[in-house]
């Protein structure tokens, strides 16, 4: 393993050196196609991440997946048509532009699919087959009697061209269900009937009126076309037994008349050729050379009918060798081969009836029950188509073959299973390119086959939790519908596809559901069986976990050969699709976070006085309150000593004044202590390193030491100003001071008397 890694690294280094030596021009010459492919892939990926382009480029299918009720698809369709007209019709005048615009609008308004069982389709088929029968009747007449009519070549072109347009808009039955997708309708018609219809149209377009060989070729093509249209009418119309008998009788009568018509024209054509060569012929012998067209044709038809149904009367008989030879062939064809064909058809019908007798009997009972319950014709047709499809599938793909394999011996059974299932695994790149053949052979023995009916749920998200494992499915036949989020359609998986590979390999459950749309046969591989076999092969085990990590961590879904069901890219799965899911540009966000943004700041010098913080203001308020209280006490003492307003005794007055003076000393000590604390705080701030350089958290301004000293001086000046203002106010308001002093003395004296 290490040797392989070294070889790969050496090879990579040598390739890098060679590319460096070549340069850009040399690399462009050698790998220009690969470079263009990678550039285109990069552009598509960048455009898909664009929000503007992503919103405007949503398809109708992506809008249905988003399931936004406020968005209408016809808005986007009108934008598409308008954009197309603006691009394609730049050089067209206004009148032509208006005509094209009205034509596009008409197509959009009448954009409806014709159902194969609709009345319009049935009536059109009846009219078309009537026209073709009339045409097959006229062509032998024109070839035989040299009639000239331009309608034989011009009118069929218009009719068949209209029929081609109708078929491009007619739905068809696919596995018992009506397929209404225009893409599938066009694909089916181009694949099956378009070439034949175009061939007939070209024959009528390039034919000359007297070209008998081309007219006969057209005759054969029209006969085959009649059989196709008759089968379509028989499938669309539900006839009862009596009606079917009458229909078969009419069809047989028309067939006999046409054969008689064709044989009569052929007999007259041979007689006319001998008449032109001046030989004895039946036309001259019966005196028809000068007769009108009607007389000649009636005699020819009379001879053909008598020859087919009886031995013949002999009134009209051949007279030369050519006539006798053609009579021999006509007799054999009209009598022997026609009788044998009718007998053989009867036998085939009887065999078909015997094989389908039980089915028809059961369905007849069901049809009778539906009619008695007054079930609509449309619903009866759906039931009929469904049971016919089930019956046909039982004949085409019988499950008895799988049951018979169980009767084989073990070695032969394993050999058969290995060969069958290995072909399935080898069909997919993920198994063929990444895992060894012995591992795949042993893995093929653990694969199981299962059949699902229409509308059966093959897999849903809750199965992952119930079984605690994923299951990988391979479609042998049938069709599987992929749905998410409450039956929102994503896509259909056809025969040859595999699905549920992301859940199987990454062990990550998805909110997804797979439903069978018809009878589907699937081959299943469980995760437990896969891991048990994988443990026996070391290299395959390493390869599996390598693929799992690449898909799970790096989003490399190309390793699974799995595209996004919405946009078709290999870089993500449907639930991460930027077209229908919100997808942030992670690279752009990471790039922004990695960039350094320069912060532009402007210097701002604040006013010095307004830089006082809350603590300084609080200390200033306390200081002013104590100072004011001290001054009031001193004024009280002065007033009492001078006037003695209450006329107290001297001893009592002395004691009272002494108490007040002691309290004043206490206030004086408090004031001194507060001033000392403020001075100490200023000194500490100046001595600390932060005092040299302080930062204001709000303004983020830096102050130097001289600015701090200046700030403290401003604070002291502000304190002094406040003190002077308060003293001045107190001195001017003497009445207020005396009144307060008297109230204070009275309160104190009353308290002391009560205490005594």
UniProtKB/TrEMBL annotation:
<feature type="transmembrane region" description="Helical">
    <location>
        <begin position="295"/>
        <end position="313"/>
    </location>
</feature>
<keyword id="KW-0406">Ion transport</keyword>
<feature type="transmembrane region" description="Helical">
    <location>
        <begin position="249"/>
        <end position="270"/>
    </location>
</feature>
<dbReference type="InterPro" id="IPR018490">
    <property type="entry name" value="cNMP-bd_dom_sf"/>
</dbReference>
<dbReference type="InterPro" id="IPR000595">
    <property type="entry name" value="cNMP-bd_dom"/>
</dbReference>
<feature type="transmembrane region" description="Helical">
    <location>
        <begin position="325"/>
        <end position="342"/>
    </location>
</feature>
<keyword id="KW-1133">Transmembrane helix</keyword>
<dbReference type="InterPro" id="IPR005821">
    <property type="entry name" value="Ion_trans_dom"/>
</dbReference>
<feature type="transmembrane region" description="Helical">
    <location>
        <begin position="155"/>
        <end position="173"/>
    </location>
</feature>
<dbReference type="GO" id="GO:0003254">
    <property type="term" value="P:regulation of membrane depolarization"/>
</dbReference>
<dbReference type="GO" id="GO:0005249">
    <property type="term" value="F:voltage-gated potassium channel activity"/>
</dbReference>
<dbReference type="InterPro" id="IPR051413">
    <property type="entry name" value="K/Na_HCN_channel"/>
</dbReference>
<protein>
    <recommendedName>
        <fullName>Cyclic nucleotide-binding domain-containing protein</fullName>
    </recommendedName>
</protein>
<feature type="domain" description="Cyclic nucleotide-binding">
    <location>
        <begin position="472"/>
        <end position="534"/>
    </location>
</feature>
<keyword id="KW-0472">Membrane</keyword>
<feature type="transmembrane region" description="Helical">
    <location>
        <begin position="122"/>
        <end position="143"/>
    </location>
</feature>
<dbReference type="InterPro" id="IPR014710">
    <property type="entry name" value="RmlC-like_jellyroll"/>
</dbReference>
<dbReference type="Pfam" id="PF00520">
    <property type="entry name" value="Ion_trans"/>
</dbReference>
<dbReference type="GO" id="GO:0098855">
    <property type="term" value="C:HCN channel complex"/>
</dbReference>
<keyword id="KW-0812">Transmembrane</keyword>
<keyword id="KW-0813">Transport</keyword>
<dbReference type="GO" id="GO:0035725">
    <property type="term" value="P:sodium ion transmembrane transport"/>
</dbReference>
């Amino acid at each position: 393993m290490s040797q392989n890694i070294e070889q790969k690294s050496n090879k990579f280094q040598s390739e890098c050196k060679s590319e460096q030596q070549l340069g850009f021009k040399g690399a462009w010459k050698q790998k220009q196609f690969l470079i263009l492919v990678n550039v285109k892939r990069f552009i598509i990926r960048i455009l898909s991440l664009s929000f503007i382009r992503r919103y405007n480029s949503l398809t109708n299918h992506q809008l249905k997946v988003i399931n936004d009720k406020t968005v209408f698809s016809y808005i986007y369709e009108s934008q598409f048509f308008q954009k197309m007209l603006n691009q394609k019709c730049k050089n067209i005048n206004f009148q032509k532009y208006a005509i094209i615009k009205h034509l596009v609008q008409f197509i959009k308004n009448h954009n409806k699919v014709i159902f194969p069982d609709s009345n319009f389709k049935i009536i059109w088929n009846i009219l078309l087959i009537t026209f073709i029968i009339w045409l097959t009747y006229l062509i032998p007449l024109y070839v035989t009697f040299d009639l000239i009519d331009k309608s034989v070549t011009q009118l069929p072109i218009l009719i068949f061209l209209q029929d081609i347009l109708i078929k491009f808009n007619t739905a068809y039955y696919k596995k018992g269900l009506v397929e209404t997708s225009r893409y599938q309708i066009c694909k089916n018609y181009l694949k099956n009937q378009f070439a034949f219809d175009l061939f007939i149209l070209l024959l009528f377009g390039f034919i000359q009126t007297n070209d008998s060989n081309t007219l006969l070729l057209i005759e054969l093509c029209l006969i085959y076309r009649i059989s196709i249209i008759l089968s379509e009418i028989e499938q669309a119309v539900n006839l009862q037994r009596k009606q079917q008998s009458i229909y078969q009788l009419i069809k047989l009568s028309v067939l006999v008349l046409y054969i008689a018509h064709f044989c009569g024209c052929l007999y007259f054509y041979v007689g006319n050729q001998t008449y032109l060569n001046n030989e004895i012929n039946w036309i001259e012998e019966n005196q028809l050379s000068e007769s009108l067209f009607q007389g000649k044709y009636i005699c020819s038809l009379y001879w053909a009918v008598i020859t087919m149904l009886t031995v013949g009367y002999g009134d009209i008989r051949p007279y030369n060798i050519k006539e006798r030879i053609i009579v021999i062939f006509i007799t054999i064809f009209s009598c022997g081969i026609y009788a044998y064909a009718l007998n053989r058809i009867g036998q085939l019908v009887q065999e078909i009836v015997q094989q389908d007798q039980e089915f028809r009997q059961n369905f007849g009972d069901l049809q009778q029950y539906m009619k008695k319950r007054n079930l609509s014709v449309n619903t009866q047709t759906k039931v009929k188509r469904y049971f016919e499809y089930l019956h046909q599938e039982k004949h085409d793909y019988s499950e008895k073959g799988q049951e018979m394999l169980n009767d084989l011996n073990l070695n032969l059974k394993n050999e058969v299973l290995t060969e069958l299932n290995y072909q399935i695994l080898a069909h997919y790149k993920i198994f063929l390119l990444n895992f060894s053949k012995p591992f795949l052979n042993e893995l093929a023995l653990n694969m199981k086959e299962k059949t699902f009916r229409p509308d059966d749920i093959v897999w849903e998200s809750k199965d992952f939790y119930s079984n605690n494992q994923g299951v990988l499915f391979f479609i042998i036949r049938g069709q599987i519908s992929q749905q998410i989020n409450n039956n929102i359609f994503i896509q259909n998986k056809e025969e040859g596809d595999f699905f549920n590979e992301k859940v199987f390999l990454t062990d990550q459950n998805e909110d997804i559901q797979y439903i069978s749309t018809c009878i589907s046969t699937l081959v299943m591989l469980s995760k437990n069986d896969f891991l048990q076999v994988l443990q026996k092969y070391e290299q395959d085990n390493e390869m599996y976990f390598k693929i799992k990590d690449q898909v799970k961590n790096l989003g490399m879904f190309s390793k699974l050969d799995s595209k996004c069901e919405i946009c078709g890219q290999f870089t993500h799965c449907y639930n991460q699709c930027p077209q229908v899911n919100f997808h942030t540009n992670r690279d752009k966000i990471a790039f922004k976070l990695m960039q350094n943004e320069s912060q532009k700041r402007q210097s701002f010098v604040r006013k010095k006085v307004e830089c006082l913080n809350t603590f300084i203001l609080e200390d200033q308020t306390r200081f002013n309150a104590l100072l004011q209280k001290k001054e009031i006490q001193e004024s009280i003492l002065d007033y009492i000593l001078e006037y003695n307003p209450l006329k107290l005794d001297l001893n009592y007055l002395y004691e009272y004044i002494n108490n007040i003076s002691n309290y004043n000393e206490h206030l004086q000590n408090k004031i001194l202590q507060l001033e000392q604390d403020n001075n100490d705080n200023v000194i500490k701030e100046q001595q600390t390193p932060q005092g040299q350089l302080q930062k204001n958290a709000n303004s983020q301004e830096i102050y130097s030491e001289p600015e701090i000293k200046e700030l403290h001086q401003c604070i002291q000046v502000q304190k002094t100003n406040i003190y002077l203002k308060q003293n001045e106010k107190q001195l001017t308001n003497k009445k207020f001071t005396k009144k307060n002093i008297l109230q204070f003395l009275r309160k104190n004296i009353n308290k002391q008397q009560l205490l005594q």
